[in-house]
Amino acid sequence: MGKNSIYGKLSIVVFLTVLIWVWADLAQDERLTLSNVITLSVARSSDQSLWLSFVDESGAVRPSMVIDSVDLKGPVSQVTDVDRMRNKGELDSALFLDPVREGLVEEGTRAFDVLSFLRQNDTIRQLGLTVESCEPRTLIIQVRRLAERPLLVECIDENGVPLKAEVEPPEVTAFVTDETVVAKVRLSAREQTLARESAIEKTPFVELPAGQRRDVSTSVRVTLSPAEDVLRDENVQATLGFCFSPNLQGRCRVELLNEMDLASAIIKIKATPAAREAYEQQPFKIFLYILDEDLQATSVITRRVEFNFPEEYVQRGEIRGAGDPAPEARFQVVPLPTTPEATGGS
Fold it and tell me: 242-281: per-residue pLDDT in tens?
């Protein structure tokens, strides 16, 4: 009976000790400052005619703002957990304001109470911490009403270059500003290949000022013409570049025996307008590959040059040679005299 009494007292002592430690942890608040971590953006509203933007100090309109600093307070254990999440990149730092919930439905420019928003935000509440202060305390928000208008749909590639496409339906309706004149469908290289085989379904988007984008509620079906049908015969002035390994760097020079012929060579290609434009922007249109073993050659070397076509357009089948073989280069690789520095001498 005595032993049971002793065990009971020990259990009570242990329980009280643990309770005291838990209470002490809860009673002792710790502070944590999040600098340039929290991003505030506008949530998509059920009212599609509403368009909200932030106005920065320069007066520029922006789709989101980074809060300079947010001071949080709470139990040590919670602060430690949040700090660890931040350091590991696991902290959900993107916050969204609902225009209707925040009462931002009337057109105009006004100050928005950031501190009040953060204190009531569910995402921060779930962290178990309270917001003490923030900087800036307020932000300027611009509210505009969009008009619903029909827009033609334009098809573009990943670089924004227009593509010749058949779009069904050719028009969609969207809420936009007066500056927006078309809706767009962007196709990746893979999607372009598929669209040349059969129609693919895509969701158009509209671009609003300040780089904001909105998807349109109506999807469209896009078909591209087979690549061969849109390739044109083009002539491009050749510019030659050399390509060789680091083993030959500083050890030789290339003597072109038909340099004038190559300098005046015209490259005949088949390409889309966009591919031809990209090709013309390449600093070298053709390359002559110099191999390590060429340094030991004792006679004139004859080798065809290689076309330096932009790889992304090659993959999409939008550029190739017109059928004529690439020009030939006739050259010699001449060793350069070695210097004491090159040979390690003094």
Answer: 998 888 888 898 999 998 888 888 889 988 888 888 999 9
Query: CA 298, CA 10: separation in Å to the nearest integer?
Result: 97
18-36 pLDDT per residue, tens = 565 655 555 567 899 999 9
Among 74, 73, 147, CA closest to 107 = 147
Cβ atoms of residues 200 and 191 within 8 Å: yes
Give DSSP secondary structure letters for 33-81: EEES--EEEEPPPSSTTEEEEEE-TTS-EESEEE-SEEEEEEEHHHHHH
Give the strands of the sheet with 50-55, arranged side by side: 61-62, 50-55, 138-145, 108-113
Position of tokens 């932000």?
139
Rg (CA), the chain: 33
Judge if pTM exceeds 0.70: no
Q: Kindly tell me the sign of the dihedral angle through the C-alpha atoms of 50, 51, 52, 57.
A: negative
